[in-house]
Design a protein that fits this description.
By secondary structure, the protein is α/β, with parallel strands linked by helices. Helix content is about 20%, strand content about 30%.
Length: about 260
């Protein structure tokens, strides 16, 4: 298979490891960008992000990195943003007063209602809007306390509900941004990456699920975890009599130090 090369922007607040592995599973050949010119020249570029709105902007705002990312979007070159990556495309966020986003589109990112548990760290159902080519309706994994409330003019995507309806993804042409983590969303997320990479054909509106199912968030959660001691995976009972179980680099699960 001819693997598409994807240049990944290191924002300083991104879960690079899981993103790179997700891209590999989707059929890509990912590489970290070390020079902002790579952002202009690459066929595919990904801008992941975790943490806060302000911290995700620190290393790219006001630099050549910012201008080259925005240039890609203006030229409709295949570019994807993940999680906080979507939020920094807007103008501002309640999370980081005074911080100015990339201004790819106007919009303010707001916090979920105070009555809700945050972050929303769970699977949630997303509903694909008409015209969306990359994100189908289905369950995706979210980890967010803030959200974009409405679609920018000229953009489509998908919606989700947590207290109220919010933007789960936005897309226009070859540019895609997801509030959820496709690299952590199983086959649903891998298919999104594959459509963006051109490995799978784009979606049509025919046959799309267009409504939220009842109790869409009541699904089981399985959170794998490995215990690490001295650089090795260990097994034991209540952290006693632990024995080595191998090299953690052989696993792709989240890690916990002991």
């Amino acid at each position: 298979m001819n693997r598409k090369r994807v240049v990944v922007v290191r924002t300083g607040t991104a879960n690079i490891g899981s993103v790179m592995f997700g891209l590999e599973r989707a059929g890509a050949n990912p590489a970290i960008a070390f020079n902002p010119q790579e952002i202009v020249d690459a066929e595919y570029v990904m801008v992941p992000g975790v943490g806060s709105f302000g911290s995700a902007l620190e290393q790219i705002k006001g630099t050549v990195w910012e201008s080259n990312i925005k240039l890609r979007v203006e030229r409709d070159k295949p570019t994807m943003f993940i999680c906080v990556g979507l939020q920094i495309m807007g103008h501002e966020s309640e999370e980081s007063p005074g911080a100015v986003g990339l201004d790819v589109f106007p919009g303010k990112v707001t916090r979920f209602d105070q009555s809700l548990v945050v972050p929303q760290q769970a699977w949630n159902f997303v509903v694909s809007r008409p015209g969306a080519r990359f994100v189908d309706s289905g369950h995706a994994y979210f980890s967010n306390s803030y959200k974009l409330d409405g679609f920018p003019e000229g953009w489509t995507g998908a919606e989700a509900r947590y207290g109220s309806t919010f933007v789960a993804s936005v897309e226009r042409g070859s540019v895609l941004a997801t509030q959820f983590h496709p690299e952590l969303s199983g086959k649903f997320g891998l298919d999104i990456l594959r459509r963006w990479l051109g490995v799978l054909p784009p979606l049509s509106d025919e046959g799309k699920v267009t409504q939220f199912p009842e109790d869409s968030r009541k699904i089981p959660r399985i959170v794998p975890c490995l215990d690490i001691k001295g650089g090795q995976v260990v097994k034991g009972i209540k952290f006693q009599n632990v024995v080595s179980a191998g090299d953690p680099s052989e696993s792709r699960h989240p890690l916990r130090s002991v």
